Amino acid sequence: MSELYAVRRAQLRDRCAATGSTAALISRPANVRYLTGCTPPGAALLLGPGGPGGDVLVCCRPLTGDPTEGRPADDVRVTVLPARDTDPVVAAAGLAAKAGAEALAVEEHHLTVTRHRALSQVAPRMRLADLACAVEAQRLVKDDDEIACLRIAAEISDQALGELLESILVGRTERHLALELERRLVDHGADGPAFSTSVATGPNSGRAGHLPTDRRVEEGDFLTVGLGANYRGYRCEIGRTFVIGTTPADWQIELYDLVFAAQKAGREALAPGVECHEVDRVTRHILETAGHGDGLGPWTGHGVGLEIDEDPQLSPGAMGKLDACVPVTVEPGVHIPGRGGVRIDDTLVVRPEADGGPELLTITTKELLAL
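Now predict its structure.
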C-alpha cells in the first residue's frame, strides 16, 4: 500500500511542478488520507520541495493507532508538534520555507482567511499558489483497492440492515433503531458509520437525512432507513423503505412502485460518457410526471469514497460526464407531508456495458416488504 500512496503523491507533485510550485500543502482531511493512508485530527501533509523524502505529515498529537485514523505510509515522515495549540498547517508551511521552497501550492478552498494570513506571516518570501481541487480530481476515479474497500463497506451495511429486519420493530423508537444499526455496523467490522444513520417512521418517512426522534414504530407505518459503513476510510450508502406489520395500503404500493421505477431508471442510466445531469433528468422526470416535482431534493445522487458526499454530483446543473470506476449513489425519494414517503438508495460503480454495466454494491432486496 505504501507504494500506492507514493504513486498518488508523485502524480500530485508533477502537477504542482507544472504550475511552478516546488511544494504543496494538503489540509483537507480526506485528501490527506488519500495521499498518506492516515488522517489524524487536524493533521496537514507537506509535499516537500526535495522530493518524496521530504514528505511530512505534521500532527498536533501522537498517532493513536485508532482504525478511524488509518496508518501512515512507510515513506511519510510523521512530525508531532511539541505544543498542541500549534496549527499543523502553519507549521508545515514553515517547514517548506526552511527547506527552501519558493512557491507553495495550498488548498485555498479549505483554508480559512485567518489561516491563509498566518501562512503569509510564517513564510513571507514564499509565493502561495492555489492547488484548487487537484486532489479531489485525482480521487474521482477509484482504483481496485478503493473499490474493494467500498464492496466490504456495502457488505457490512447489508448485513446490519438485514439483521435489523429480522427483529421486532413495533413499539421501538427511531432513535433506538438508529443506535442499534450503528452498533451492528461496528460488530460486522466497520470503523464506524459512514454518516449519521437515518431512521424515519410514519409521517417522518421519506424525508432525506431525517434525524431520528423518539417516535415509536406503529402498525401500518412506512419505515425508511438510510445507513452506511465506514471501512478503512471508505464510505458507502444504502436506503430502503418497508411497511410495518400489515399488508401495504394501495397508496403505499403506488408510491413505492413510482420511486422504485425512478431509481431503476437512474441506475440503468449509469455508464461511462453519460452526462451527470442526464442521470438526474431521467430519474427526476418519472417523479415530476407523477406530480411530485415540487418536493424533490436538489440531486438524485452523488459520488462516494473517502467522503460520503463527493464528486460527481448527479443534479440538474451538474457539469461533466461519468467515468468508469466511479462509485455513485442513486437515491430518489418522495415525502408526502402528514403521510410519509419512500426513499430507495443504492451505491453502484460505473462500468461499461462490456463489463456488465453498473456494478451494484448494496444488494439488500428492494421488494416492498411488510415487516
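The mean pLDDT is 94.
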